[in-house]
Specification:
By secondary structure, the protein is an alpha+beta fold. The protein has two domains: 179 residues, no CATH class; 200 residues, Restriction Endonuclease (3-Layer(aba) Sandwich), CATH 3.40.91. The chain is 34% helix and 28% strand. It contains ten helices and 19 strands. The chain has an eight-stranded mixed sheet with strand order 1-2-6-7-8-3-4-5. The protein has a five-stranded mixed sheet with strand order 11-14-15-18-19, sandwiched between helices. The chain starts with a helix and ends in an 11-residue tail after the last helix.
Amino acid sequence: MEHISKKLLAEDASILFVEQLNNISILIKAPINTCKSFIIGCEAEIIIGKDNTLEKPIIHTGIRIFSDMVNPLLLTGSHRYREENHALIKILKSDSCLVGLYNELGILVATGQVVLNSKTKFEAIEMIGSEEYLYYGNFTQEVSDSLDSFDYSIDNSRQFKNPYAIDLMTLGCNFKDWNIVDSHFVGLMEKPQTKIDDIDEGTNLEKYVWFSIESLFPFSIYLNPKFKTNKGDKELTDILAFYDLGIFLIETKGLSVFAQTKDKSMVKKVATLQKHIQKAILQLAGAKENIERGTDFYNSKGEKIDFKRDVIPHCIVLVSELLPFGDWKKIQKEILIAMRDAKIYLNVMDFKKFMTLVKNTKGKKEYLDFYLMQRTERFVEHDSIHLKAVIKR
């Protein structure tokens, strides 16, 4: 089952069918807000595809999650291991099975049960056919093209190179009986704790971000550092990290899932998100001013934090989800103005994109520094907040 662990750590999002110690289960890795939507009862459907155009047919699976009814999230993947198809068939023959929800860090945040539509299950088993005649092997270009065609067959409005239709089967499913996992993170200087159903959703995101880069800055990363004012202690930023050649100031902003009104429109979601980002930009510019002034900062134990201040800091606004809808021109202009006036590097991205950068650092903070500079240059070049990959492979 080594490939399962690798997928949970390496892939941005996925759905996996597994059997371990005679227990069958579905593992779903998704953005944290999607995980929260599952817990409060959003609808979902599992999709199975079989590409019979290949010499050996290959099975693909996906899950469409209606956290937003107009713009559902689709996660898909190919079955390249015999045990995946074996587990899938056993699940289809069962009344129900376990389900595990994993966030962007690959951390288990909740477990539950899933019940699949009875009638469609047997039709899906018939479509899959005999396991021994299916494809097993590497993720070749042919498999990649087949997976693209699976995605295209589900939603033909998406653009792919030379896609073709493959057989599909959609299964209605009911996720229920959620149990929340209490996560404890142990660092060298902090020991935060999180639960995905915590109503203080923004604080939870801070802790996840802190944990994701704590190993890069083992003795120089601080959660919620403070400075003193006439009115008492005030927070500098959510996360401060540094080394000799770089300073990193991070503000996290999470779109509320548990507190929001039911069926909030995408227009309102985008507007709320943009307000959060505008506030974070002002907070980061203020943090830069305090660094320039020589203000003293203190950690959670009240100890003074000393660091080199004569470098241009990386200011990062991290959101749980950067929605690809609406007009972002005003925000993009504000980012450019803030970089010019405050003399900072400023990146706005979601947690998933940030984790992609972190995974590619190879454990070196210098790489994160470089990737963020690269990303800033790419933002200025394209004038778009919705940047794709900036790491050349």
